[in-house]
Design a protein that fits this description.
Layout lengths: L2 H11 L3 H7 L3 H12 L4 H7 L3 H12 L4 H7 L3 H12 L4 H7 L3 H12 L4 H7 L3 H12 L4 H7 L5 H7 L1 H6 L5
Helix pairs in contact: 1-2, 1-3, 3-4, 3-5, 5-6, 5-7, 7-8, 7-9, 8-9, 9-10, 9-11, 11-12
């Protein structure tokens, strides 16, 4: 019996140790088994589902319905799922999820915008590695010019937009030529 067949059998006839042992071989069916058949979290199905970031996140969200260190740790192996874990499972910023998003400037920016919901020196530094994300960070998170974001956009295609948004402030500020 394949993991898919074991899941389908258990979904139709109820859980059993035999079908559960088979679904452990596949993280996808381990997750669905916990969600649809057991309808509750179990250490064994969680362990099987937590082999990859997206199913660790899904398990925490849909089965555990709460954050746990083991699911967060696996989710943090991927910037996308670290971001989603913080936003939808933790529902608050955590150092490990924030740091995991630094692997992707896009998710670092989204983390600052949607999870931290405020500027931070470390997230601004990450965004300033790229002129596009520095511009977005300034626009959506700082909501005003900073020396860091200005230096990151200066000389890029975002320089003129930046200047237009904050012309008066830039002209009066010694950081901005």
């Amino acid at each position: 019996m394949t993991p898919k067949e074991a899941y389908e059998h258990a979904d139709k006839y109820g859980p059993s140790e035999e079908t559960r042992e088979i679904v452990y071989q596949d993280y996808v069916y381990a997750y669905y088994y916990a969600k649809d058949v057991d309808k509750c979290p179990r250490e064994d199905t969680r362990e099987a589902a937590c082999k990859v970031s997206n199913y660790a996140y899904k398990y925490a969200l849909d089965v555990d319905k709460c954050p746990r260190e083991d699911t967060r740790e696996t989710a943090c192996k991927d910037s996308l799922y670290a971001y989603y874990y913080a936003k939808e499972v933790d529902k608050c910023p955590m150092e490990d999820t924030r740091e995991a998003t630094y692997k992707s400037l896009y998710y670092a920016y989204l983390y600052a915008k949607d999870v931290d919901k405020k500027p931070r020196k470390d997230t601004r530094e990450a965004a300033c590695e790229n002129s596009h994300f520095a511009y977005l960070y300034m626009r959506d998170i700082d909501k005003g010019p900073t020396e860091d974001t200005w230096l990151a956009v200066k000389g890029s295609k975002y320089e003129e937009e930046y200047k237009e948004m904050f012309n008066e402030l830039i002209c009066e500020n010694p950081y901005f030529p």
